[in-house]
Amino acid sequence: MPAHYCINPLDPYAEQEVLVTYEEDRPFVSVRSAIDEDGFDILTELSEECVRVLQLEIAVYHGHIEPYAWAQHAVDVVAAPAAA
User: Fold this and answer.
1) Cα 15 → chain centroid
2) Residue 45 in domain
3) How far apart are the C-alpha atoms of 29 and 63, rounded to whole Å?
4) What gap in Å lies between CA 37 and CA 51, rounded to an integer?
5) pLDDT tens for residues 32-51?
6) Which of 3, 9, 58, 82 has the highest count of CB atoms within 10 angstroms of its CB?
């Protein structure tokens, strides 16, 4: 299963990363886990919007930006969502 380091959407300073494992589906990848720096899977704590941010980050990294060109600046997270 492919994996990619992404910015942790729960980190308000965007300094931490999560290791995201995913399956390559279309139009977006299917995120299976998001392991933080402490080794915990935080996927269940993420909102749908945060998961979409991870999907877009992976898509842009792999050069699949054409279908998502509108989204490169459309996702603007003002603050990290509160942890559940």
Assistant:
1) 14
2) yes
3) 13
4) 17
5) 999 999 999 999 999 999 99
6) 9
